[in-house]
Amino acid sequence: MTNKAGKKRGRQRHVPQRTCIVCRTTSDKRSLTRLVRTPDDGVQVDPSGKLNGRGAYLCDQPACWDQALASDVLAKALRTTLTEADQDRVRAAHPGRPVSET
Ligand SMILES: [Zn+2]
Q1: CA-CA distance, 3 to 39, in Å (whole number)?
Q2: What CATH number is attached to the domain comprising 66?
Q3: How many whole angstroms from 73 Cα to the centroid of ligand 1?
Q4: Tens-place pLDDT, residues 33-63
Q5: How far is the CA of 96 from the centre of ligand 1 (A)?
Q6: Is residue 75 part of a domain?
Q7: Is the pLDDT confidence value at 98 over 70?
Q8: Would you place residue 1 in the very low, low, confident or very high pLDDT band (cuts 50, 70, 90)?
Q9: Please, are residues 24 and 56 in contact by the beta-carbon 8 Å criterion?
Q10: Which of 22, 69, 84, 97: CA 20 to 30 A from 59?
Q11: 78 or 13: which carries more pLDDT confidence?
């Protein structure tokens, strides 16, 4: 648990910042993974950031991925309902082994 990220929002910097949809950590886009709801192929993990569609970002903390898979936060961010196949693709991109909670 880090509380390092200040609440204050400064001027927008030139570096594109992205926000993890779970923990709301803001970071430059390289440390976040983009997930895209594509028009034809459902939700895809998009490391290259090139796919068209509505995107959402997850940081590299496994807990955030766990949360994204366990709740509807991702579905809400992408304004869609994740199918089993969508969830499988997200799960496949999970950055760590699932953390056992507490
Ligand atoms: Zn996060």
Answers
A1: 37
A2: 3.30.1230.10
A3: 12
A4: 999 999 999 999 998 889 999 999 999 999 9
A5: 13
A6: yes
A7: no
A8: low
A9: no
A10: 84
A11: 78
Give the Å distance between the CA of 42 and the centre of ligand 1: 22
d(CA 15, ligand 1 centre) in Å: 19
State the Cα–Cα distance between residues 6 and 16, nearest whole angstrom. Answer: 18
CA of 8 relative to ligand 1 center, distance in Å = 18
Ramachandran assignment for 53, one of left (phi > 0), alpha (psi -120 to 50 degrees), beta (any other): left
pLDDT at 79 over 60: yes
> What is the reported pLDDT for 30?
75
- How many CA atoms lie within 13 Å of 38's alpha carbon, on the beta-carbon side? 14
Distance from the alpha carbon of residue 66 to the mean position of ligand 1, in angstroms: 10
State which residues form the domain around 31: 17-92
Q: How far apart are the first and last CA of the chain?
A: 13
What is the total count of domains within the chain? 1
CA of 65 to the centre of ligand 1 (A): 8
* Predicted local confidence at residue 47, as pLDDT: 86
Q: Determine the distance separating the centroid of ligand 1 and the alpha carbon of 40, expressed in angstroms.
A: 27
Residue 11 lies in a domain: no
Residue 57 belongs to some domain of the structure = yes
